[in-house]
Design a protein that fits this description.
The chain has 13 helices and 22 strands. The protein is an alpha+beta fold. The longest helix has 16 residues, at 339-354. The radius of gyration is 25 Å and the shape is globular.
Length: 510
């Protein structure tokens, strides 16, 4: 058994084991029915009650590590359902607890050459471990560290060592066929800028033409703007835009690329983003690395070619670059529901605890072992990739609430709590419950809902914490699996509103 699984005190294990019966208790001894506002919304939106599950528990604070819970409401809490992106809660909580909030990914740079008079004569080998947020700002820091080694010019090519991951996890499989969408980017030990080109489009402030900029910088990409301005509303602006990347498939990364925009662009659009995954991983990383080096003031003897290749035994380590902290990554994953970042946390658990090449199956084993060590026996739990972007992942609402209670008893409790989207404030909950929250502006201690959301075709989900107006803390999870699930947002908001208003108070019981 891994040492990281042995550090939990026995009283905590016992307390957490007690929680495993919450699902059954919720089903058999619920004191409160589903709120009328929720059932009315379900009826109005033609969602049958057997398509939804709800679990609500009140978390009662004790000494650190001694929080307990009492059942408030359970409707089919034991039924295993598709949780969509709320599955990220399991991945991020286990990641924080096993790896630690201060964990940082490492990207190693090796060379088979020598540095002489400011020139690196030889190739660079980039070896990744799955840093999920290797973005332009981080790459700029890497370039500065390379220059601090006395390098001003590079005379060589780039090789990318992705041996940290098994090839199967890097395959570009999607559940909806939308392979060019950013949310479908596959894992990559050398994932740069989510492999996504983000174009910013908007009417020029000074003249009647369209400004186009893009990130991240690529060394050989130019934009051909053939769009015309039209006097139309900004709604559905994307449907009138034509985009082509030429050449779309390239074998050699020393070829120039042209991003061509055509069609009609509404003059009323003040600035919109057009995000696309249009380049293979090697081309994207090669041109991104080359551009970052040039932006830092470095030069090339010739434009570099980037290829797959493991680090040779004779190569020497030039630089070990550390990315941002896991706690900051988890913030992005949960606030903005980043799929590939979540998948790479799961693979990092496999990599760190079971060695390379990392596989999803090994990540699953690590999480299952962690659950058992915390007294959580999640029968029928299915982890396919850890992000919730899956038709197969499954967990029950009761189990998810057990997880939320467990989180309050772990040393990483506040890191996890603070990573969740805040209703009316940020992340995927930014525009939710705005009217309801305005009612509490006069209160000194304002209630809040920190809720991870999830949505797929036929799935809507919420899971997180609600701090009520009287100061009670609830864990709430609800899944809707039904063709009309997209209409279920109102029912979920009604459930959260009920909790913000202290709905479970005895006077409200029916």
């Amino acid at each position: 058994m891994h040492s990281y699984l042995l550090r939990y005190p026995t009283f905590l294990i016992a307390a957490l084991f007690w929680v495993t019966n919450l699902s059954a208790a919720a089903h058999n001894a619920a004191l409160i029915d589903i709120p009328k506002s929720v059932t009315s919304s379900l009826e109005r939106n033609q969602i049958p009650k057997d398509a939804i599950s709800i679990s609500v528990i009140e978390i009662e604070a004790g000494r650190p590590g001694k929080h307990i819970a009492k059942n408030i409401l359970g409707w089919r809490p034991e039924v295993v359902m598709n949780p969509a992106s709320t599955m990220k809660l399991l991945t991020t909580l286990s990641g924080l607890d096993i790896l630690g909030p201060q964990y940082r990914w490492r990207t190693n740079i090796y060379t088979d050459g020598i540095i002489r008079q400011g020139v690196l004569k030889g190739n660079l080998y980039l070896q990744g471990t799955g840093d999920p947020k290797l973005i332009p700002e981080e790459l700029a820091k890497m370039m500065k560290e390379l220059q601090n080694l006395g390098i001003q010019k590079i005379d060589g090519n780039l090789f990318f060592d992705r041996s940290a991951y098994a090839p199967s996890v890097m395959e570009h499989n999607t559940i909806d066929g939308e392979s060019l969408r950013a949310y479908n980017v596959p894992p990559d030990p050398l994932l740069y800028a989510f492999r996504t080109l983000s174009f910013q489009l908007g009417k020029s402030r000074t003249a009647d033409f369209i400004d186009i900029s893009y990130t991240p910088a690529l060394s050989q990409l130019r934009v051909a703007n053939q769009m015309r301005l039209v006097d139309r509303p900004c709604d559905n602006w994307k449907s009138n835009i034509g985009f082509k990347l030429d050449p779309e498939e390239i074998g050699n990364t020393d070829q120039a690329l042209t991003a061509q925009f055509s069609g009609a662009f509404p003059s009323s659009c003040k600035g919109v983003n057009f995000n696309i995954v249009a380049l293979d991983a090697n081309t994207f990383l090669t041109q991104g690395f080359a551009a970052a080096w040039e932006l830092a003031g470095g030069t090339w003897a010739k434009p570099p070619i980037g290829k797959d290749g493991n680090v040779p035994l004779a190569a020497r380590l030039l630089l070990q670059f550390e990315g941002i902290k896991l706690a900051d990554d988890v913030l992005d994953i949960n606030k903005y529901s980043n799929n590939v970042m979540a998948r790479q946390v799961l693979l990092t658990l496999a990599l760190e605890k079971m060695g390379k090449p990392a596989t999803t199956a090994n990540g699953d084993l690590v999480i299952q072992s962690w659950l058992k060590q915390n007294g959580l026996n999640f029968t029928d739990l299915v982890i396919e990739n850890g992000s919730g972007l899956s038709r197969n992942e499954a967990i029950s609402a009761g189990q998810m609430n057990q997880l939320l209670l467990t989180a309050r008893n772990l040393p990483v409790a506040e890191f996890f709590y603070n990573s969740l989207p805040i209703a009316g404030t940020d992340g995927t909950m930014r525009n939710r419950l705005l009217g309801e929250l305005r009612k509490f502006l006069h209160l000194k201690k304002k209630p809040e809902a920190r809720i991870k959301t999830g949505s797929l075709e036929d799935v809507r989900a919420i899971s997180g914490y609600v701090l009520s107006k009287s100061g009670k803390l609830y864990a709430v999870t609800s899944f809707i699996n039904h063709p009309n699930a997209w209409r279920g947002l109102e029912a979920h908001d009604q459930l959260l509103t009920w909790l913000l208003e202290d709905g479970p108070e005895p006077k409200h019981a029916r």
